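Lay summary. Proteins are chains of building blocks that fold into shapes, and those shapes determine what they do. In this project we predict the shape from the chain. Here is one chain we studied, written as its sequence of building blocks.
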Amino acid sequence: MAISLASFAKINIGLRICSLRADGFHELHTVYQTIGLRDIVSVSVGRGSGIEIRCDDPRVPKDSTNTCFRIVERAMQVLKARGRVVIEIEKRLPVQGGLGGASGNAVAALLGLERAVRKQLSAGERLQIAAEVGSDLPLFLIGGTVLGVGHGEEVYPLPDLPVIPCVVALPEIAVSTPKAFADWDKLCGSAASAYEKGFRDSAKLTPSTHSDRMLEFSREISAWLSAVPITGRRRSGVSAIGGGRAENLLLDLVRTGIENDFEKVVFPKYPEMREVKRVLEQSGARYASLSGSGSAIYGLFDSRERAAAAAKKLSRHGTHAVVTSTLTRQQYWKAQSS
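And here is the predicted shape, written in a compact code that computers can read:
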């Protein structure tokens, strides 16, 4: 019998690209947030051997390069399980969209495999296998609001955001993450060169040191998340007055200035994506941002009605947009266990 699981998407709330590490990855700092958009992944185990990937989307690889293939292959070894594994992926999320679709698919396949073979990995084994397969995978073993560091694979649960209405715009553009990183390196290299020549007025382009960027992001996140309820109101270094908890969180988020560094290199190449963000902001989004390296762009709203109106406006402009909401950790795991 096939085991079917929801494979949820994520967005990035802020993303700092820091120094290039010895292993070839950039040090990253980000806050991941799971949202209600999803694929469906089904796993069955029968007689025989091998792993088969089935998917109607031609952009999804069916061989050993697929993250589902790689994580199941590794998990079968650790579980000492045998059989032919068939993984069916019903794609609803975009490929190369910055929503973590492939990573979420892999974690859903891992969880489905455990149920199918009636064996369970320890939490530590799951996280280790996920990190070996890909940077974004471990976040889907936590769900909700998650701090990601390292190259994104080192994850820590944060206090959950409340459920916030969200619009995800999906321009028909495939952004290459390796190319986006390469463009970032070129931008930083050019800025460093200008600095070395004495053009200190180019402050916006001059790259901060690794420790400076770490500290900057830490302060921004702390200022946003340290707000605590006091007698029905919120207190923080950037406190908002009036409105509900979700609205105040969004106002706090804007005031901290948390941004996605990829916007600096992706938007100049794809100005239509910058326009999508502008439409979201003009339509009432309290916070709008690129997710990952794109191409998905999301907006957080203080009401479902405003989110629906924004999605409708984007559709009139020719950009597919869907209304969803953030998922708390409890909601995420409840959906996985049903």
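What the prediction tells us: The domain at 3-159 is CATH 3.30.230.10 (Ribosomal Protein S5; domain 2).
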